[in-house]
Amino acid sequence: MDDTEPVRAEDGCRLWTDDTGHGKPLILCHGGPGLWDMFGAVATVLSARMRVIRWDQRGCGRSERREAEDRELAVLQWSADFADPATARGYAEQLADPWFGINYECNAAITAEERQVWRETELVTACRGLAVPTLIVDGAQDIRPRWAVDSLQEALPSATRVVLPHAGHVPWLEAPDEFRTAVVNFLCPA
């Protein structure tokens, strides 16, 4: 048996598969998320002794990618941005509604340009020259490195920082009252 015909999932999504060799089946599942099957050489070695089945997971590699799957992947990734796992999925769903899709090419191009134009010392110098009042509101339970926000606060000469203890990366959803209070107090001091 040597077959690379696509398989159709129940919902019609086309999945790339490879089925080689004879005998007891061995299913190879690639890692990720977002990667693809990298076991071609392994299958070549083993297919003389057994049936080796491989595939690219939905939306990965040679398998079909669908807009709904892109949204689902974003929701899963964004769920990690929230402090409370019990409410994280709901908040991530809110961020994805409406769904416009992510322009990964634009993201990559801007990130590459940013790395070429801004060196850390130049960026810190530029920030120190900003004489505008700046409010930084962040969640204490954000999974991103704290040093990134700490260094921004240090670089901005007129920065006020409010850390919300029970929020992650998206404090306006997890702690809307505290977030609103911080912004109003900053913009309209008593």
From TrEMBL:
GO function term, MF aspect, one: aminopeptidase activity
GO cellular component assignments: membrane
InterPro entries listed in its UniProt record: AB_hydrolase_1, AB_hydrolase_fold, AB_hydrolase_sf, Peptidase_S33
One biological process term in Gene Ontology: proteolysis
Keyword Lyase carried by entry: no
Keywords: Hydrolase
Positions of transmembrane segments: none
Domain AB hydrolase-1, chain residue ranges per copy: 24-70
Similarity field: Belongs to the peptidase S33 family.
Name by which UniProt lists this protein: AB hydrolase-1 domain-containing protein
